[in-house]
Amino acid sequence: MFEWSQEQQMVRDAVRRFVEAEIAPHVDALEHGDLPPYDIIRKLYATFGMDAVARDRFERQLARARSRRPGGGPGDRPEEAPPEKEGAGDGGAAAMTLIPIVELCRFCPGIVTAMGVSVGLAAGTIMKRGTPAQMERWGLDLLTFDKIGAWAITEPGSGSDALGGMLATARRDGEEYVLNGNKTFITNGPYADTIVFYAKLDDGSDTPVRDRQVLTFLLDRGMPGLEQSKPFRKMGLHSSPTGELFLSDVRVGRDRLLGETEEERDGGGRESAKDNFVTERAGVAAMALGVIEACLELSVAYARDRMLWGQPIGDRQLIQLKLAKMEVARLNVQNLVFRHIELSAAGKSLTLAEASAMKLYSAQAASEVAMEAVQLFGGNGYMAEYRVEQLARDAKVFQIYAGTDEIQVTHIAKDLLRR
Amino acid sequence: MNVVVCVKQIPDPAAPPALDPGTHNLVRSGKLILDDSDAYGVEMALQLVDAAGGGEVTLVSMAPNGETSGLRTALAMGAAKAILVSDETLAGSDALGTAKVLAAAIRRAEPDLVIAATESTDGYTGTTPVQVAELLGLPSVTFAKKVEVDGQTVKVERQTEAGYDEVTSPLPAVVTVTAGVVEPRYPSFKGIMAAKSKPVDTLTAADLGLDGSQVGVGGARQEIVSVVEAEARSAGEVVVDEGDAHERVIQFLEQLKIL
Predict the structure, then answer these.
(1) Which of these three, A148, A178, A209, is where a domain ends?
(2) Number of CB atoms found within 10 A of residue A343's CB
(3) Dihedral, A104, B68, A335, A96 alpha carbons, nearest 10
(4) Which chain B positions have a beta carbon within 8 Å of A7's beta carbon?
(5) Contact A11 B192 (CB under 8 A)
(6) CATH number at residue A294
(7) Is B196 in contact with A7 (Cβ distance < 8 A)?
């Protein structure tokens, strides 16, 4: 694959038209006016029938889960879904997911983060490790975006060391659990209807906290003892509300324990957190591509139009160098995204080292391209009106969330050295 | 109810246009897209078929090199099938030549109603739809801003300079719709996936019983003799407000006979 297929271009053009008509006019309100992104995301879903597609896919996944163990009792959960058949051969389902990501990120990476965390992380975790009953109760509404999801693992004292350093606890109390702890930097935290919450099992033993089993729970907005903070002020990504969660003695039954069993299948809660790494990292590369494309287009137009000393600044070699480096980054990141789509279409997936390498490179490239775009625009680049400053602030987070650059380096190296 | 929509596939208006230096015709050898002004007709047709509770929308188009990109866009919106006339003989057709081709293709579809845009965004002759109507022997109603089908008649609100006329015509008829008659839908992802397997019947001029004396350069009665640069727009008049700006603006508008 060296370019989007005709069909993929149609999807791209349609989403681009929607983004320019329905999102671009609201970017100021989203970025500076505290307009939550959820109604716009729902409109996107309804416009392109993404909710209907999600519903169909959900029915198929549920049917598969049920057929595996009729009755869908505790401990039952679907195995990894086979690759999607639709559109196979030209990237199929992966491209259909990534194209809207690229297009949205040309204007508003925050919307993608809000959407991706709800659908990809929260719903994704439930659909992968929940029982059929849990899939029905929480999964479907998240997949269709009727409800908003959050995925709560990071704590004030632990980001990169989220699993080991986790202090949130789940204490057994008869048939129930009592949950306590604080979570922070939680995307959609302030508005989430459903929260996928990670905590360490406190079974009264003297196992050191670091080594305790990690359990995953499904919480609803408004449960007694659960408090969701207001959105944080951040450097960028203002379209994606981020907040804290405070849990004090939140009582939950086993029906809210993901998989409805403490039994550690495929590594349990720890692995459940890691399940998402590959998809999430590939998604960040697509986000980076959108930012790079937008910055490059804006920069080329500006280099042509902006006159200094009687000639367009594009005639100057120092400006040309910036444009050339941006184009190199665009080609590289696009190729990485295309490779991921090709692999998915062939029913294969990236290794952890590959996904991490892809994310590391794309995040740095987007950040660098966007900052260079600001530089190319000079004083105008520092002004919100010219858009590149927002993209630069937004792109910085690609090097921090979904695993920092430094964590990606260690994941790549460890994976290589382990072989 | 079966509706035919005439759609044109044009060079992307966002890309710089080029004229053939010999014929002065627009160069159409690159990728073509659905003319934006046709999206309104497609949407109108889809809504009318929905309201009628049955039937389908068929697209009719004439384009070089078997081009279907623009047709796929309209098929993704929900049209059921397309008839594409593509043939080297057709190169250099004037508006009437194009109308002959479209009329012959439309006849095959036996529609209850034919919808077209008032004019294309690349050629702007605005004559083809009425020529099609004449060739088919059908009534034509132009500049529709509202269209309703009631049994065997079509009721149209026809945009005029002063307001609109209410026109009723028996079916079948040819109706041209203005931009803004309806809000064109975005194609859904499912619609885009389905579009590639919808039938596009590709025909030649000969298939329609037409030859080089009727269509293409040979049949054209219209010729572009020369093309000149548009005159640069002259600078406007700046009114500096010295307390009487409103009077001068009113005078200006009166001169233009707007007030």
Answers:
(1) A148
(2) 17
(3) 50
(4) 192-193, 195-196
(5) yes
(6) 1.20.140.10
(7) yes
Give CA–CA dist A213/A207, Å, rounded: 9
pLDDT (tens digit per residue) in A371-394: 999 999 999 999 999 999 999 999
Using a CB-CB cut-off of 8 Å, the residues of chain A touching B77 are none
- CATH class belonging to B3-255: alpha beta
Q: What is the pLDDT of residue A89?
A: 41
Distance CA B13, CA A157 (A): 55
| pLDDT value of residue B235 | 82
The C-alpha atoms of residue A166 and residue B152 are separated, in whole angstroms, by 73
Q: What is the pTM of this model?
A: 0.87
Q: Which of A109, A125, A148 is the last residue of a domain?
A: A148
Residues 6 or more apart whose CB falls under 8 angstroms from that of B59 comprise B4, B5, B6, B7, B42, B71, B74, B75, B79, B81, B82, B83
Which residues have C-beta within 8 Å of that of residue A86, sequence separation ≥ 6? A92, A93, B193
Query: What is d(CA A113, CA A118) in angstroms, rounded to the nearest whole number?
Result: 8
Q: Does A358 share its domain with A388?
A: yes
Q: Which residues of A touch B (CB under 8 A)?
A: 6-7, 10-11, 14, 17-18, 47-50, 52-53, 86-87, 96
Q: Do A50 and B189 touch (CB under 8 A)?
A: yes
B192 CB neighbours in chain A (<8 A) are 7, 10-11, 14
Residue A160 structural domain: 151-267
Q: Per the CB < 8 Å rule, is B192 touching A14?
A: yes
Same domain, A30 and A84: yes
Residue A251 to residue A171: CA distance in whole angstroms: 10
How many domains, chain A?
3
Statement to judge: residues A17 and A106 lie in one domain: yes
